[in-house]
Amino acid sequence: MIEITDIEKIYKMGGETVKALNKVSLSIQEGEYTSIMGPSGSGKSTLMNILGLLDRFDSGRYMLNGTDVSGLSDSELAKIRNKEIGFVFQSFNLMARMNVLENVMLPLVYGKVPYKERRERAIEALEKVGLGDRLEHLTNEISGGQKQRVAIARAIVNRPSVLMADEPTGNLDSKTTLDIMRIFQELNSEGTTIVMVTHEPEMAKYSKRIVHFRDGVIIKDEELTPELLPEREVE
Ligand SMILES: Nc1ncnc2c1ncn2[C@@H]1O[C@H](COP(=O)(O)OP(=O)(O)O)[C@@H](O)[C@H]1O
Ligand SMILES: [Mg+2]
Prior knowledge:
About 35% of the residues lie in helices and about 30% in strands. The protein is α/β, with parallel strands linked by helices. The protein has a single domain, classed as P-loop containing nucleotide triphosphate hydrolases (Rossmann fold), CATH 3.40.50. The chain is globular and about 50 Å long. The relative contact order is 0.19. The site of adenosine-5'-diphosphate has 12 residues, from β1, β2 and α1.
């Protein structure tokens, strides 16, 4: 599904250059739930932004579902991103003037899905994250944990082949963090491939694989038996 080979990403700042990714190779299969871990500045976000087609790389190769994405134009990349990738950010990135339902319907607007189907699919996604009763709330009227659940619903509404999350619980308390981890496990058990950046071992233990990063290289790739969270109680 995801196959990167010898990816390099170099940032130039003033006279200095930083090699944020130093020939990174990694492959991720359908159905995996992978955590990317490593100290701050080790290149985790750089890697995620490249995997999520939000940023370009300097050399190497990236095959996504059999397509070599390196040579594609911005609009071709945007099309593939919209279809294949759901992205969740630490800072939620919701539209403040729209209600919960409108936020989740938004990705479907670009996909030209008719209104009725947009609405149905958005409600279905919101029910998956336990927010079926918050459709009309504005996003500034809900808690941080609820905001992140809206962001997850928005990320999955297009039924992407992979859900990517960069420190999705970085702004959340520990109980809410567990709610998000439970949702990720439920989505993964239903077949969604997940790649998540975290610097907390407490979260990584719920995934099936941990890729450890340091100074722009992978230093360890470990498979694990995930600790299972109990299913959500009906709200
Ligand atoms: N836009 C940028 N411009 C210049 N340097 C950057 C930029 N983004 C990241 N870097 C540098 O690249 C390295 C990796 O950063 P990042 O991928 O954000 O790490 P992490 O997410 O693991 O904390 C760091 O040294 C960081 O300072
Ligand atoms: Mg980061």
